[in-house]
């Protein structure tokens, strides 16, 4: 009997968390992408002056490094007693 009650009490928060995450996922998927996002790949393709200077400055590599560093910073801040 106690194990059934324990299972029920543990099931409720798990199910509530799952429903909240499903709702959040549906909300984020409902947000449309901006118009400029559809044409972002055209900046890195082609033979124009912008493309030349972007490649000269290694912007694609820099963006990858920035994204990785922000991701690592986000994760470190979630570790208790380390990420203040």
Protein traits:
mainly alpha, 84 residues, 2 domains
Whole-number count of domains: 2
Tell me the overall shape.
elongated
Number of helices: 3
Radius of gyration: 22 Å
- Binned strand content: under 5%
Task: Provide a quick synopsis of the model.
This protein is mainly alpha-helical. It has helices spanning about 1-30, 50-55, 60-75.
Task: Report what the structure shows.
With 84 residues, the protein is mostly helical. The chain is built from three helices and no strands. It has helices at residues 2-30, 49-56, 59-77. It is elongated and about 75 Å long.
Blueprint (SSEs and pairs):
Elements: H1 2-30, H2 49-56, H3 59-77
């Amino acid at each position: 009997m106690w194990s059934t009650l324990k299972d029920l009490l543990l099931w409720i928060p798990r199910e509530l968390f799952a429903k909240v995450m499903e709702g959040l996922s549906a909300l984020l998927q409902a947000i449309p992408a901006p118009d400029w996002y559809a044409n972002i790949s055209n900046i890195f393709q082609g033979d124009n002056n912008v493309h030349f200077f972007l490649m000269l400055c290694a912007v694609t590599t820099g963006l990858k490094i920035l994204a990785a560093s922000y991701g690592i910073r986000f994760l470190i801040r979630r570790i208790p007693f380390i990420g203040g």
